[in-house]
Amino acid sequence: MVTKKIEITKHILVPKHSKVSEKEKKDIFEKYNVSMKSIPQISIKDPAIKGLNVKAGDIIKIERKSQTAGLTYFYRGVVNE
């Protein structure tokens, strides 16, 4: 029996996750008047960000497609949980 490894990031229900640059991070904090403590969190162990070479304190941009809202962006702060 051959076991096939599933790559979660390629699944149709998993939206695109990407790491933002330090400049983008600063721009996000200024634009939305938020800090690292006030944005939602994502665990460094989350399978959706595996392979993005992230560390605690990084910001992840999640792109979600909606039939009603179009393309929307959500941001999550990486934590060591």
Write a structural description.
There is one protein chain. It contains 1 helix and 4 strands. With 81 residues, the chain is an alpha+beta fold. Strands 1-3-4-2 form a 4-stranded mixed β-sheet, with no helix packed on it. The chain is globular. The N and C termini lie far apart (35 Å). The model has no long low-confidence stretch (mean pLDDT 92).
Mean pLDDT: 92
Rg, alpha carbons: 14 Å
CATH-derived architecture:
Alpha-Beta Complex
Question: Tell me about the biggest sheet?
Answer: 4 strands, mixed
Number of H/I helices: 1
Q: Would you state the CATH class? A: Alpha Beta
In which range does the helix fraction lie? Answer: 10-25%
CATH superfamily: RPB5-like RNA polymerase subunit
In terms of DSSP E residues, the strand content is: 25-35%
- Strand tally: 4
> Order of strands across the biggest sheet?
1-3-4-2
CATH topology: Eukaryotic RPB6 RNA polymerase subunit
Assign the structural class, choosing from mainly alpha, mainly beta, alpha/beta, alpha+beta, or little secondary structure.
alpha+beta
Approximate shape: globular
Number of domains: 1
Poorly predicted runs of 5 or more residues = none
First-last Cα distance: 35 Å
